[in-house]
Specification:
422 residues; Rossmann fold; 2 domains; 15 helices; 46% helix
């Protein structure tokens, strides 16, 4: 019986290791639960590797109390586990050495604007520079003495509806600080405003005021109500800018997954009255967008050639029907339909091994942006990186997030320079 358990555990570890490098669930054939399981296991095992190794070492220790290692099958299984750990460690080593490649990619796309941006956010350059403490205890991102976090500030109330946001800001009393509007992911049906705490804490420590907002979820609502909720938050932020020290004329939208999609629409549908019921004349302009592993394709999942059943099922809930029954909703929810020559700068970031969203979505959307000659736009395709890589302060996040934060600084410096020229 012990031998059977050992073999099952070893085979499971092999499959889980392979899933990190190439998701085993096929987006076009697998069910949504299977895709979600592939993503969650790939993300946890790939980015929480030290914890995974410690867990498996403990299990190996328990097996050592049996006679499993008195047989060749036991030693063979041990070699298989060690090989898997080495492969996963090599993956992290590749990511650990990625910041210079990312910097080069940004320089190629942005030129002097990137080179002149202040590099205040430094990724680890050696093993000693890795923040191991936060990797094992993500809550340490809330402990920075330089920042203040205001939780659950209400920004909209209507009958029984109460929408809230969290504010990350420096403890200094400076005014007209740059702002960030952060939108969480969760497939428009779930999510938490704590998801981007790592980046929000970092940016607040550098003098930014960050607002992490929520929206109502489907199936309670259908699109565009999600977007309207976020625009309500931006309206509140600008109306209360003086109280929180933020410059109402410089706010950048950021978000991941469904939040990346909504951040994109915030940048593309500025001051559109159809998305601002009751506050049609309010200024909802923003100065840029950073979309991480965002969603950009909405009709293709229903086409026979690009059929994506799990995503199509989700979109029926979010949009209240299919492209045939709700064509206006699908027209509105697709970011590419809103691109114009007034589109602000975009940074798109997408992992190549994302189990939930194909990297091709970001590539196609980026080509659409380029077709309109949108200035200071860039895209980063991240090899061996999974969905939601930035939620915990893992080594992957520590190596990639500084590039994203430097891009935000670049946008603000460009804004300051343009004000000086006028």
């Amino acid at each position: 019986m012990v031998t059977i358990f050992f073999l099952v555990w070893t085979l499971g570890s092999v499959l889980l290791t392979l899933n990190v490098f190439k998701p085993l669930a096929d987006r076009r054939r697998s069910s949504f639960p299977a895709i979600l399981l592939s993503y969650v296991t790939g993300w946890l095992i790939g980015d929480l590797l030290p914890q995974w190794i410690l867990l498996n070492a403990g299990i190996l220790l328990l097996f050592s109390f049996s006679d499993i290692f008195s047989h060749p099958i036991g030693w063979g299984g041990l070699i298989v586990h060690l090989t898997g750990w080495c492969a996963l460690t090599l993956r992290l080593w590749i990511i650990f050495n990625s910041p210079q490649r990312l910097d080069k990619k940004m320089e190629q796309q942005l030129g002097n604007s990137w080179n002149n941006a202040a590099a205040n956010f430094n990724p680890p350059e050696s093993i000693q520079d890795i923040n191991w403490h936060s990797w094992f205890n993500p809550n340490t991102v809330f402990d920075d003495p330089r920042i203040e976090i205001i939780h659950d500030q209400e920004f909209h109330q209507e009958n029984d509806l109460k929408l809230k946001l969290d504010i990350y800001r420096p403890r200094s009393s400076k005014k007209n600080l740059p702002g960030i509007l952060q939108i969480h992911g969760g497939a428009w049906i779930s999510g938490s405003k704590r998801q981007a705490a790592l980046s929000m804490s970092h940016m607040a420590a550098q003098g930014w005021v960050c607002f992490s907002v929520v929206h109502r979820f489907s199936p309670e609502i259908v699109f565009p109500e999600h977007l309207i909720d976020i625009k309500r938050a931006l309206h509140w932020i600008k109306k209360n800018a003086g109280e929180y020290g933020v410059d109402p004329d410089f706010v950048v939208a950021t978000g991941g997954s469904a939040g990346g999609h909504l951040a994109s629409l915030m940048a593309l549908t500025q001051n559109r009255p159809e998305f601002q019921p009751g506050f049609e004349k309010a200024d909802t302009g923003i100065q840029g967008c950073v979309s991480l592993y965002g969603v950009y394709e909405f009709s293709e999942p229903f086409n026979d050639e690009t059929l994506y059943p799990a995503k199509a099922k989700l979109l029926k809930i979010v949009c209240g029907g299919t492209p045939d029954t709700k064509p206006e909703n699908y027209q509105q929810i697709t970011p590419a339909n809103w691109i114009s020559r007034e589109t602000p700068p975009f940074l798109l970031v997408q992992g190549d091994t994302d189990a939930l969203i194909s990297v091709n979505e970001a590539k196609k959307f980026f080509r659409d942006l380029q077709a309109q000659n949108t200035q200071n736009c860039a895209i980063l395709n991240l090899p061996l990186v999974e969905h939601a890589f930035d939620i915990f302060p893992t080594l992957t996040a520590q190596c990639i997030v500084p590039t994203i934060e430097r891009y935000l600084v670049m946008l603000h410096e460009n804004y300051i320079n343009s004000k000086g020229e006028r």
